[in-house]
Amino acid sequence: MAESVFRLAVPTEKIQELHQRLKLTRLPDELDDAAWDYGAPLADIRRLVERWQNGNDWREHEAQINDELPQFTRDIAVAGHGVLNIHYVHQQSPVPDAIPLLFVHGWPGNFLEVRKILPLFFSVVALSLPGYGFSEAPRMKGFKLDQYAEVGHRLMLALGYNEYVTQGGDFGFQITRRIARNYGGKAWHTNFPIAQAPSMFSSPLAYLSHLLTPYTPFEKAGLERTRWFESTGRGYYAAHATKPQTLGYALADSPVGLLAWIYEKLVAWTDSYPWDDDEGSYCFSRAGPAASLRIYYEVANGDKRYPPPSEAPTIPLGLSYFPKELIVVPRGSYLNIESPHDHGGHFAAHEEPGLLVDDMRKMFGKQGSAFGVVPGKTGYA
C-alpha cells in the first residue's frame, strides 16, 4: 500500500471534448415567471455555459489546486471488494502534537471542501470517497456505509494515525458515525446532525422532553427548513436511491445536465453563499458522475439511515448547527456539545470555515469535552 504523489493533470483531449460538447448545447425553454420554482433558472445556466466555454481557464485552476493541496493516492484493500486506489489530501501540521483529523465529504461535495479549513486546523487527511473525485470507484454491489468507513479507517492506519478524530457533513456524517461505532474512534464532529424524531417506545424520556419543552425561534426555523426540504427538495434523493444508473447516462453524456443538476443544490442548500462561476466541477472525476450516485442506492437498500440508539457511538461528539442546513433537528436531540450559528448552510467547510474550525477548537481545546482524547495530541495549527 505504498503512497504515490498525485498532481491533477486532466488530459488535453478531455478539456477539448468538454468545449466541443458545450458548443453543441441545446437548452430547454422556460416559463416567463418560473424563477427558482421549477429548478435552476435558464439565465443562470446560460451564463455558466458561456463562462465554461469561453472564459474558464481550467489549467489555471488545476495549477492552483496542485499548489494548495498536497495530494496522494494509495491502494486500500476493502473486505469483499478487492483493492481500490484512493485519492486524498494529507497536510501534516507543523505543530508537533497536532491532533490528526479525518475529513469526510458527501454529495455533491468532494475533496475540495477541505480547501478552506486546511490552513486553520490540525494535521488533516481528506479523502476522495470511492467513486468521487480521483478515487477509484467500487466495482460490485453492496458497497455500503461500512465499506466507506473501512476505507477511511484503513487510510488513517496506513498513514500512521492509529488514533484520530473525524469531521463530516452530508454522507460524511453517516460515514464518520460508522467509523466511530465500528473502530472505536476517539471523537467525532459533524455539521449535519440528522436524527429520527423520538418515539414513546424507543426514547420515552426524549419523547416527553420534546413534547413539553417549547421550541426556540432557532428550532422553529429549523423545523420549517426541514419541512421545506422534505416536501420540495428531495426529488434528487429518490432518483439517486432508485435508478442511479439511468440518471448517470444523462449526467455523463451532458456536461450542462451535470452542471444544472449540481448547481441547483449549490444554490438551494447554502445560506446565500456567493458562488463564483468557476467553483467546482465533476466533469473530470476519475470514474464519472454516475459512480457518485450509487451510495444513495446502497443506503436505501439494506443499510440503516437511522441506526437504533443501541448502535450509537459513545465517544465525544461535537455538533455545529447552521440555520440553512437541509435538516435542522431540535437542540437536545443529541446529548453532546452543541454550537448553533445564525448563518451558514449545508457546505459548512466551504461557506463558513472559520465558524466550523472554531467549534472544533472549542471541542478539542483545554476546556472542551474531547481534550486529550488522542494520547499525546492536544495541539492544532
Automatic annotation (TrEMBL):
Domain Epoxide hydrolase N-terminal, chain residue ranges per copy: 6-114
Record's keyword terms, sorted: Aromatic hydrocarbons catabolism, Hydrolase
Gene Ontology molecular functions: epoxide hydrolase activity
Pfam families xref list: EHN
Signal peptide: none
Transmembrane segments: none
UniProt keyword Nucleotide-binding present: no
Presence of the UniProt keyword Secreted in the record: no
Sequence similarity: Belongs to the peptidase S33 family.
Name of the molecule in the record: Alpha/Beta hydrolase protein
Organism listed in the record: Mycena belliarum
